[in-house]
Amino acid sequence: MIKLLRQSPLSARIGMGILLFNVFLALFASVIAPYEETSVVGDVWESFSGNFFLGTDHIGRDLFSRMIYGARNTVALAFVTTVLSFLIGSSLGFIAAVKGGWVDQMLSRIIDAIMAFPTLIFALMILSVVGSSIPTLITTIAILDSTRVYRLSRAVAMDIEVMEFVEAARLRGEGLWWIISQEILPNAIPPLMAEFGLRFCFVFLFIASLSFLGLGLQPPLADWGGMVRENAGAITFGIYTPLIPAAAIACLTVGVNLIVDWLLHLSSGLQD
Amino acid sequence: MKNILLLICKRIGASLITIFVISLIIFIGVELLPGDVAETVLGQSATPETVEAFRKELKLDLPPHVRYATWLNHFVHGDFGNSLANKRPVAELVNWRLSNTLLLAMVTAFIAVPLSIFLGILAALYRNTLFDKMISITTLSFISFPEFFIAYVLIALFSVQLNIFPSLAIIDDNMGFFNKLYAIILPSLTLTCVVTAHMMRQTRAAIINVLGSAYIEMAEIKGIRGFRIIVYHAFPNALSPVINVVAVNLAYLVVGVVLVEVVFVYPGLGQLLVDSVAKRDLPVVQASGLIFSIAYIFMNLAADILSMLANPKLRQSNF
Amino acid sequence: MDNLLKIKNLNIEGFYEDRWQPIVHNINLELKRGEVLGLIGESGAGKSTIGLAAMGYTRQGCRIASGSINIEGIELYDASEEDLRLVRGSKIAYVAQSAAASFNPSHRVINQYVEAPVQHGLMAYDEAEKEAIDIYRRLFLPTPETIGLRYPHELSGGQLQRAMVAMAMSCKPDIIVFDEPTTALDVTTQIEVLAAVKEITETMNKAALYITHDLAVVAQVANRIMVLRNGRLVEEGETRQLIKKPKEAYTRELLNVRNLRQEKSISDKMDVILKVRDLKATYTGRENVLEDIDLDVRKGRTVALVGESGSGKSTLARVITGLLPAICGSINFLGQEIPLDFKTRDKDTLRRLQMIYQMPDTALNPRQTVRKIIGRPLKFYFGIKGREAEERIRELLTKIELDPDTYIDRLATELSGGEKQRICIARALAARPDLIICDEVTSALDQLVGEGILDLLQDLQNKTNISYLFITHDLATVKAIADKIVIMLEGRIIEQGDKKEVLTPPHHEYTDKLLASVPEMDPDWLDNLLDKRLSTFI
Fold first, then answer.
1. How many CB pairs under 8 A join A and B?
2. Most buried of A254, C41, C497, C512, CB within 10 angstroms?
3. pLDDT tens, B116-149?
4. Does A234 touch chain B (CB under 8 A)?
């Protein structure tokens, strides 16, 4: 593991640096941030100063503090959602691949139907019906996103499943649990690791987009997508406040994508 | 030839079923609303009488399957009901906005498709050179950026700093075509960046895949010129995957307009959908959601059929 | 006569593990008009690399480090791309192993024939087209006038391979490189292609390099043979001379006719451990891929199941193991009727019937160590754990002739093909089975490695009286190991019996064709066969 990290290319190291920095901010948000998440401490859209490193927002809250709390809220939410989506998607995908037959058929048809629906539109419609709260947000996005995880893990598991060592295990009389956990999972991890990164990016961007549309995390919670929306008006006055949270989102996704690229490269290399 | 026709018919049939299922989901979704649409919309201050009257108006007193049949029947005939927010017919609202959205999508496709195929081919031909790596990093970044980030950077650059394009894409019917084009230049540029990045990467991968085939090596060994290998041997086989890539990305484009329309306050269908979701204007949400879905499914259908037709393995010598 | 091709001190390097490493060392080679030179060797011998280098071509990740390649006075080593292009196709042409992959799926076969002469400016389209039809006829392709109008996927494997031989002739080059042109084909189809090669090299007086791993095949077509190993020349000589009196030990090993089996009697009194009756099976539910299969395997004996691709021999293995449950019929194993579906068989039945696969690469989980692979059946079937398991694993490794200390903690990915196949045997043995089904266990391995595996299996049978059902397409293997032979064609058993009985005439018509198609280590074999066929044909 350490050897792998030492061999990693510069791009992947930059990506890991960005990711670790964000995780650090998220974990110690309340210690680092100079002001409270929601307290109004200055004037509207003050520019950078010693008091306010990144200036203030549209109602005079410290932007720097809100950026840090935003890291915590957005990153944590995206992470939890991705984990949930992976748990649902990969377990269903593996079961479909190993069981085959009608289980596979039924699951795959349902997933096809959901995937034929554009994700954003689907999410918007669900949120319009059930309203936007953190639990609904997590479940909605996790379920929608798990369809892609399902597709990939099913495909990966199918590729492994046709190999003779799995057949040998079946003929030995091994049960479903052994086949999934001992024969398939260890071989599926490299491609799924990369996919986890990709899905995280997607979920993260998706939540940011929903917040930007005013349908994600609700104010006064600090959240990067929402902060872009709140401060959007500033841009026409030549004040670049909304670009700061937008750039933070871009930076984190680029970072994760750099790691993903490296992982994809690794897992394709491992197959040779 | 018969086989292909059969395959295409099957694929079209599957899409029709999907559209039907989606209409059902959209309808049931609204049904599942806790309580009742009437109560939700009118709020808690409403008197039982007004709620009752409203229920009548929405025909909520009829059984669900009858309402679904009427709703679908009306939808097919272009009658989407009335907006809850301003009581105007939904069709009226949707029509104008749909044409605006299509204009934006088409202008974008017009720039993005040739651009990304051109860049994709170049990157594949000069793979692993500095040029390829630069393109790769640029496109990776564009894929990672949220649309609104690209949009605000473009606004900051072109309308705040340079002041050459408007930051709000306001159009109306009295404007000439070129004025409209001028108004939507920044939103379509934003979309172009995103779509081109995806399309170009996939085009590159598809072409590299073809260039690695044994028949390309065979052509080289036969002493065929490089240019002819690309045009005669690689291109016909790359066509099918590239067509698929283009169509799938255009499907994405149809949905990708939502965010960009909101940033530029562009009067399109996406903006309408987002507004209606916020206002819980359900008939409008239903109609625009279904239109988006149909467009998306249709583009995916086109992707599959076109790449099926371009697949060389399906060619027959007619013997 | 002057040399057409002259290669001197050729060194080729490959890029792996982050540096350039030599893969072909100092090869010298000369080829005269009308001469066929056979390049023979196992995988990694560098024979294909040399074949391509003769055209001044290297695959990605390889480069010609030094040496000289001279074709009719033109030096290719430092030639420009344009000069190379002019030589390729027109003066020297190439026939690849997989015709299916080497034909462009988008264009008709004849257009791909015509392309090279037209592009080299040698002929007009119409003229080239006429010649194509002529050569299709000479290579015995059916309906030569119209076959070229088809797309590659509309031709069979043997036809496509002959169409590619024809395509190589399109510019009338002086030299042709044949790179394993028959390896992917069945033996009966192989004859057609070999006849086509013979037609071209003898009647048209071309020079050729013929690359293969099969000495018997190369003996039919080559005048001279070079034996290669790990990119180095082992031995070179006239074909007859080399076959009769090989100088090097390695060549002798390759030439060794396998006869591992002392005759064992099969009496009717011996225990029948597997008795299959009236089996039928289907994949689609419509047509049956297996029909009326009756088969007996006796204790301590080997039954060889022979057939070409599509004969249903591997399907039969899947049916007996229960992976593809038969739709009717019965399987009696060790005196008991067992269920047709493996899911309903009990653990003990599963244990007593083990399987070894064709591809050792995919038969072992790449994430598991040897200890886990062999230890699992011990624990699963017998509950053996800890120290005792460790001892049993070591014992098994010794049995399959691998050193326990070196191998016990290796991952499957850290083993060579032959070692992997040995581990597969150990895994099967760990279950203490009564019957092992061996599905083409040597066909993915190099000749000598494969023979090692056969030796081992034979040895184990002598010691433990285990039975084998041996599935193969290779009749030489059959002759070497079988007690009883079962011949399959299109899902049916067409002939079965004791080895002697099946191998001595009179045969079933198909058995005859099959046996006659296996090349013998006799340079005159193909000529005699073709003469015979021609005379019976007339």
1. 125
2. C41
3. 988 888 888 887 788 888 888 888 888 888 888 8
4. no
